[in-house]
Amino acid sequence: MFLINHYEKINKWYNFKIIGLDLKYLAQKMNEKMTELKKIFTIIIGDGAYTSERPYTMLRFAYTALLEEHKINIFLVEDGVFVGKKNQEPASYDNVGKWMKDVIEEGANVKACGVCMKARGISQDEFIDGIEKTTMNTLVEMCAEADNVLFS
């Protein structure tokens, strides 16, 4: 508990002078509240790298959410496995490979469907570092832990 004995308006904000405030308790409560506000998003990318803007939009969303300290899981499925390929050099599109590297560097957990990779002739060594070949069981786990699931 704390008591406010005086406040004054400074610009648009109020400056509160607080008596008897337990700063350690307040910091603990603020951390608890911030943890409650953080979400887990699982993003399933099924569109190819440059067949639509959806993968690009999902990666921008993921990057923004990571900057806001949310947890991001990304699962590449169907033609979405092409989003994870190394050495992409699109002529007239924003490079989704660069965005994928950026989200991995910011802490995204990125997996790819092994069956989808095999069907499209893609091997693990063709992927950007940090993307792991896996199974649908992993996707189920990602979706089960998520607060929100997005599919593109």
UniProtKB/TrEMBL annotation:
SUPFAM superfamilies: DsrEFH-like (SSF75169). InterPro entries: DsrEFH-like, Sulphur_relay_DsrE/F-like. Gene3D superfamilies: DsrEFH-like. GO terms for cellular component: cytosol. It holds the Pfam family DsrE. This is Uncharacterized protein.
